[in-house]
Amino acid sequence: MTIPVPPVPVFDPAELTLTSVRGLRAAGVRAGIKASGNPDVGLLVADAPVPAAAVFTRNHFAAAPVLRSRAHLEASGGLVRAVVVNSGNANACTGAQGEADARAMCAQVAQLVGCPEHQVLVCSTGVIGVKLPMDRVRAGITAAHAALSREVEAGRSFLLAIMTTDAFPKEACARAGAAVVAGVAKGAGMIQPNMATMLGFLATDAAVPAAALRAALPALAAKSFNAVHVDTHTSTNDTLLVLSTGAAGEVSGWLDRSTEVARRLAWLIARDGEGATKVTTIEVTGAASEAAAKAIAERVAASALVRTALYGNDPNWGRFTSAVGNAPEVKNAAALRCVLQGVEVFRAGEPTDFDRAAVSRAMAREDVSLALELRDGQGAAVVMTSDLGYRYVQVNAEYTT
Amino acid sequence: MTIPVPPVPVFDPAELTLTSVRGLRAAGVRAGIKASGNPDVGLLVADAPVPAAAVFTRNHFAAAPVLRSRAHLEASGGLVRAVVVNSGNANACTGAQGEADARAMCAQVAQLVGCPEHQVLVCSTGVIGVKLPMDRVRAGITAAHAALSREVEAGRSFLLAIMTTDAFPKEACARAGAAVVAGVAKGAGMIQPNMATMLGFLATDAAVPAAALRAALPALAAKSFNAVHVDTHTSTNDTLLVLSTGAAGEVSGWLDRSTEVARRLAWLIARDGEGATKVTTIEVTGAASEAAAKAIAERVAASALVRTALYGNDPNWGRFTSAVGNAPEVKNAAALRCVLQGVEVFRAGEPTDFDRAAVSRAMAREDVSLALELRDGQGAAVVMTSDLGYRYVQVNAEYTT
Lengths: 401, 401
Description:
The structure is a homodimer. Chain A has helices at residues 64-75, 95-113, 134-147, 152-162, 210-223, 254-271, 290-302, 304-311, 317-325, 356-363, 390-398, and strands at residues 24-29, 41-56, 79-89, 120-127, 170-176, 179-186, 199-206, 239-249, 279-287, 337-340, 343-347, 350-351, 367-373, 379-386. The first copy, chain A, is α+β, with helices and mostly antiparallel strands. Chain A has two domains: 18-271, L-amino peptidase D-ALA esterase/amidase (4-Layer Sandwich); 279-398, Ubiquitin-like (UB roll) (Roll). In chain A, the strands form two sheets. In chain A, strands 1, 2, 3, 4, 5, 6, 7 and 8 form an eight-stranded mixed sheet that branches. A six-stranded mixed sheet of chain A has the order 12-11-10-13-9-14. Chain A is globular, with a radius of gyration of 22 Å. The two termini of chain A are 20 Å apart. At the A-B interface, helix 8, helix 9, strand 12 and helix 11 of A face helix 8, helix 9, strand 12 and helix 11 of B.
C-alpha cells in the first residue's frame, strides 16, 4: 500500500540553535546504538553549573534515566552541568541493570567534564525492554565529549542524536533582547511506534534562578507540550528540561519567548503525528473552569471519529458536538457554539446552514482551528491534535517491535 | 484503495428470534427513509402492556425520541405496549420540530394499537441534524402495523429495520427453562460514521416485574453493552430496552440467560467495529476496586496504539504496559503481569522471553484475550474492543456527512 508521506518542515531559517545560547557546548555522534547508523549519543555541557528545572513522565513505569535525572536534580538543588542523551534504546523496563547503566552514563560524563555526578542528567529514548549496549554508549560518550563545540553544526548534531522515528528535526529559537532562547525536541503527536518518548530541551542565556525556572515550568508546559494531545499514552521516558546559562544577564521577556519556542516545538510534534497531514488547534472557551475546558478539549482531541473527520476534510459537526456532549464537565450543552476554520457550523442545538464545500476546502490546510464556545463560565484551554489517516495505521500496525 | 472486508457472522442457526417470545408481534417495512431502500420502520407490539426497563444515552445532546421514551416510561410506571423504531434518521439536533415528530410517532402507534401514548416508546437512528420525513414515517408506521406477525420472518424484518451502517444483523437468543430470551441490536464497536447509535432490545416471556427488570438492568448493561469500548463517544440516541411478556410464567435463570444474550450482542457490536478484524477482551484483575479495574481496562481499550498493535498481530507488550502505567488508578505497577492469548509476556517490570512469532500467530484469531493482573486489591472488569485498521480510517474519513 503506497500512502503519501506528508511534507517535512526544515530548520528555522534564522541561524540560531541550541549552541547560540552563550555558555553552552554540544555534540552529537554515531555510536552504533541505532541500526540506521544515524547519530545516537548527544552531549550538552554548560561552562559551569547552571540553574535548571525539569518535568518528567508520570507513567508508573518511568525509565531508569528518568529516575536518575529526577534524583540528581533534587540532590544538586537544581544545578546542572551536563546532559547526556542516547537514542535507539530507552533503557526502560530493564530492571536493576538499567538503573546501573543510567548511573554509569552520568558517572562517565561527570568524570570527563569534571563535576559531581548529581550535576549530570541523562535521557534515553528508543526501544524498551532491551538492555543498553554499554560498550557502544561509553565509546559514544567519549567521542561526544571530544566533539563538544559552540558551532551551529554542533547544536544541530545534538538535535539529530536525540531523534528516533521523527520524520523531521524539531527546533525553534527566538531572541529576548540580548538573550537567546533555543529549543529542540523529539517526538510525534500521536506517539512513536514503540511508545513515543517526548524529549524537549530549552536553553537561554538570560539569567534566571533555578527557583524561577521551576515556578515558570508548569505553565510553560501546560501551554505547549502538555497541550499536544498524545493519545492516551505518555511514555516511560518523557522529559522536558529548561536551563539558564545566565551569560546574557537579566532579560525581560525570556518567559514569553520561551513559551513561544516551546509552543512551536509542540506544534511540530503534533505535525509529526505519524502520518498527520495537519495540526488542529481545539480551543474551548466559556467552560466552568480551566480544568473543565482542558478536559473537554482533550475529549474532542482524543476521539478517533473527530480525527478521521479532520483527515477527511469533513466538516462533520455531529462528531465535534457529540464529543462535547459526552463530557461530564459540560453544564449547559444547549449553549454550545461550534466554529470551524472561522465558520459557525453549529449553535443553539442545531447545525447552521453553512457552505460544506467551502469549509471542507478550508480544512485541507496545514493549520485547522476548531473553536468550541460554551457559556458555563470563564474557563478556557487549547489542545493541539494530529489527524488520523491511513499512515497512522500503517506506521503503528506494520511496525514490528 | 481496496481493503478487504471482514467476514460477516450470520443469524444464529437456532430458529429463535424476537417473535419467539410469546406475546410479541413484530414487523419491519420499507418506508423510504433510507436511500438504500432497505427496511427502515420497525414495530414491536405486546399483546398487553408489559413490564419494561431501559437505559438511555447520557450525552448532553440526547435526541428527541430518547427524551420522549424516558418520559413515557416514567409516566407509565414501566409498562410498555409498543416500541416504534425508524432508521435512516436519528431525529437528533432537530429542535422543537424533532420533539413534535417523536411525539407524533408515539401518538400514531397508540391510536393504531389502542393504548395510552405513554405506553409507546420510540427510537430513531441514522443521520443527525435533519428533520424526519414525517409523511414517509407515518406511512411506514401504518404499513408496519398492518404487517405485524408472530413469524420468525417478522422478528427478523424488525431487526433489519433498525440497522444503519451495520455490516451484519445482530441477534442472540437462548432458552431459560420454558421461557425464551431473545435480543437484537444495532451498532458498531467504534461507532457508526455519523455518530454511532447503539440500540438494543431484549425480550423474554419469563414473568419479571418492572421493578426487577429495573434492578437487574444496570449490572446486565455493565457486563455487556457498557463493556464494549465505543471510542470516547456515546451517541445522542443510545437505548437499551428490556421487556417481559410473562407468557411463560416465572422462570429461574432468565437473568443469567439475558446477560449471556446481551453479552453476545455486545460482542457482535465490537466485531462490527467498522473494519474490525477481531474482538479483544481485556480483563483487568487485582485492581484496587471494580471502578479502578474498569478505568484501567478502558484506558487500554481506548489506546489507538494498542488497537493498531492488535490489528497488526503485534505482541507489543510495551504498548499494553504503558497504557496501564498511565492509569492513575494503578497503585503498584511493579506487580503487573500481562498475559496475551494465554502467554505471559510481561512480569516484574520486564518482558518475558516469550515466543513472539507464536503469540503473533495466536493474535490473528477472531477472539483475542488480554489479561492484565495487578495486586492492588480484588477489583475486576472486562472490556471488549475492536482493533484499528485501514478500514476504520476508510469508513470514517471517506464517509461524507
